[in-house]
């Protein structure tokens, strides 16, 4: 099954198609945001504080008179960066750990899995808070923290899948022909465990955006003047008695992105299934 | 001069530890294979039959080096199997065809990549030479070269089994272990695959160790048949001899279970075994078959019979015959 076929199947699922388009638009916005924002997102205009939506300010302004639409566009960058970087860490560390654990077994398996168990034993947000606390507060460190939080899931998934694949007869056939561990992992295990990992990654992409927003809301992520949907919510939250609308825009942005990530994951799961039937 | 066997199993054993005692000492074993000796000569097919769990597949896996025996030794052309494994030349001599035609082919590799894999691993030829060889192999097993660019999912069970055969043939091995290669296929396809294996044997002069659970399945293709029960061979004989004059009570029972095409023969005496197959973790003392044997004697509970010649063409492990041999 080629990548082309998978893509075609994915695009045939309506929800997955729209989610994919939506996320692609977000990715593009995250790159070009600085060039398309109508106002400087950190420029204050104290004459126009908490203005209602208008032709000049599409989504109104915040308590310091900054254009909310511009801030929302700039916040996309934090969200997409956090999402991508936070799944890159478990893909580069967790997945190889899981494959080695599952394929080699024995002491390697024991050591890796006990590390993973240790990480899992700590609640995710608490662990992320601890890591950002230790590394210093910044968006990058928050992303590293989220990546570490995700690592156990990917390691376990990769290990479980590897355990299943390594005893398949086609792996045994390769062993009879003299294939070593490297060949088997590269040619047989990785291509066959990739689909569930890709699906997991797309779910975690949206979860990472959510956690990044949570950390920024708690003040452990993006720091002003850096803009993130999370700290936009935090600022709006403190003004909720005066203008309840401000909190809706970043909230909506987070909800839509998380939903899109989940729908894309569902679509990928179907598209990657060899027994796929168009429903 | 006596011909040298191609493969020789000398009292091989495979005991799997189960559970462990205090201080991590392994104290209990499942005796999956418990002292199997067998010679396979060049160009012949040996059928290995027995019930599920009797150790026949484990024996086959040890022959191709997928599993190491815990006792005894396997020789290939007079040299220990481990020497081939160390030199990575095992795959050039021994190959395997698997039971399940679905899980034996990597779903994410093209057919050409699957068949060429043994060639790549043994660094045979250039990419274009290998592709030529793949085309030859595809034609040899009754497929066409254009099938090479497809994925396994596009093939039927019978076609997939042909692909498995093509892969096993790639390095021109001298012995192929066939682990129930037709039991997952439709009856009509089974005959095609068996005929193909036979044709290939005639062309290339290779040997087969043909594993099956029914005695009828190996009748067509085998020259000799070994019957296994609870990790041991209880009868080993030429095909004709075994079918015409089965000696061991277990073999007799197996043969009487084969449906007869002649309706007049339907009323023939059937030997129906009672009781379950004993667990190989806790095999009965004495002859392992005595718990189900219709003609068991008192001493069968104590004495484990040896596999001894009962004619020029056959070996049997049963106390009924041990006396006759002694006399």
TrEMBL record, chain A:
GO biological process entries: transmembrane transport
Domain ABC transmembrane type-1: 76-265
Segments passing through the bilayer: 15-37, 79-104, 111-131, 243-264
Entries under InterPro entries matching the protein: BP-dependent_transpt_permease, MetI-like, MetI-like_sf, OppC_N
Topology with respect to the bilayer: Multi-pass membrane protein
This protein's GO CC annotations: plasma membrane
The keyword Metal-binding is annotated on this UniProt entry: no
PROSITE patterns with a match to the protein in the record: ABC_TM1 (PS50928)
Subcellular location: Cell membrane
Pfam families in the cross-refs: BPD_transp_1, OppC_N
CDD domains reported in the protein's UniProt record: TM_PBP2
Coarse class of the protein's main subcellular location: membrane
Keywords, ordered alphabetically: Cell membrane, Membrane, Transmembrane, Transmembrane helix, Transport
The family this protein is said to belong to: Belongs to the binding-protein-dependent transport system permease family.
Name of the protein in its database record: Peptide/nickel transport system permease protein
UniProtKB/TrEMBL annotation, chain B:
Pfam family, one: ABC_tran
Alphabetized GO MF terms: ATP binding; ATP hydrolysis activity
InterPro entries reported for this sequence: AAA+_ATPase (IPR003593), ABC_transp_ATP-bind (IPR050319), ABC_transporter-like_ATP-bd (IPR003439), ABC_transporter-like_CS (IPR017871), Oligopep_ABC_C (IPR013563), P-loop_NTPase (IPR027417)
GO BP: any one term: peptide transport
Organism (species): Mesobacillus persicus
Coiled-coil boundaries: none
Protein name: Peptide/nickel transport system ATP-binding protein/oligopeptide transport system ATP-binding protein
NCBIfam families: oligo_HPY
Record family assignment: Belongs to the ABC transporter superfamily.
Keywords for this protein: ATP-binding, Nucleotide-binding, Transport
Ranges of residues in domain ABC transporter: 7-255
